[in-house]
Fold:
Amino acid sequence: MDQTLQETLISSIRTIPDYPKPGILFRDITTLLGDPRAFRRSVDELVHPYAGTRIDQIAGIEARGFILGGAIAHQLSAGFVPIRKKGKLPHDTVRVAYSLEYGVDEMEMHKDAIKPGQKVILVDDLIATGGTAEGAVKLLKQMGADIVAACFVIDLPDLGGRKKLEALGVTVRTLVSFEGD
Ligand code: AMP
Structure:
């Protein structure tokens, strides 16, 4: 990706100090989504390596992964599968516990959302410790998905999430990174 695009994307992301708690620098992508050029270029850049290849499903992580994932699914002519916090999906689900900064939570996917062998790309806005994405990868593998890649707009490399996913054999694609946490 060229330098100018990277600068455009970085300047379209708003940083909010001490949200949701003291010491956290929250990387807010609502400003990127609200900027037509930055939104479009982010989606174009994320899908670039997969254009013209067969991708069956995009799995998006609640909630910002739904927005990016929907646009990516459209661009790749793929389906969209939501991965949600427990209790939100109406039909039979598969569920996995995943680690958060403090404690654990659970996420779910519909049992019939993905067929074994389908080619899937996982999408979220940001990867930090990788706990959330790791949970999603476990769910997808449980369903027999062929995970082509995990895509994020933002990487926080100091928190090690990318390495965690790569250790699971997942290809990770990110557009911009911010130092620190
Ligand atoms: P993690 O499981 O640590 O990789 O955290 C990733 C999830 O938490 C993603 O769904 C992000 O949207 C959210 N998240 C974690 N840290 C931040 C941050 N500094 N700014 C914005 N969102 C974050």
Observations:
- The mean pLDDT is 96.
- Residues 24-27, 61, 64, 124-133, 161 surround adenosine monophosphate (CB under 6 Å).
